[in-house]
Design brief:
71 residues, 1 helix, mainly beta, three-stranded antiparallel beta sheet
C-alpha cells in the first residue's frame, strides 16, 4: 500500500467466482497479472475508487460439458 494506491501482483482467482445459476461456465483456473486500486481515502464521498486490471487469464469450461463428463 502506497498512499492512496494498493497494488497486487499475480492474483489467483477463486474457482467459485462464476458459481451462479446464471453463469454458463465454470472457472477452472484464473489469474490477474496486476491489479491496482486507487482509493482517495480523504475524499471518498467526492472522488471515485478506480481499479486497473492488467493481464487476465481465465480457463473455463461450459457447465453442459461438465455434466456430460459426469454421466
Amino acid at each position: 500500500i502506497s498512499g492512496d494506491k494498493i497494488t497486487l501482483l499475480n492474483v489467483k482467482l477463486k474457482t467459485s467466482l462464476l458459481d451462479t445459476a446464471a453463469s454458463p461456465v465454470k472457472l477452472l483456473e484464473g489469474n490477474i497479472k496486476s491489479l491496482v486500486i486507487h482509493i482517495p481515502f480523504t475524499e471518498l464521498s467526492t472522488k471515485p475508487i478506480i481499479a486497473e486490471i492488467d493481464g487476465v487469464q481465465l480457463k473455463v469450461q461450459t457447465k453442459d460439458r461438465m455434466k456430460s463428463k459426469n454421466l
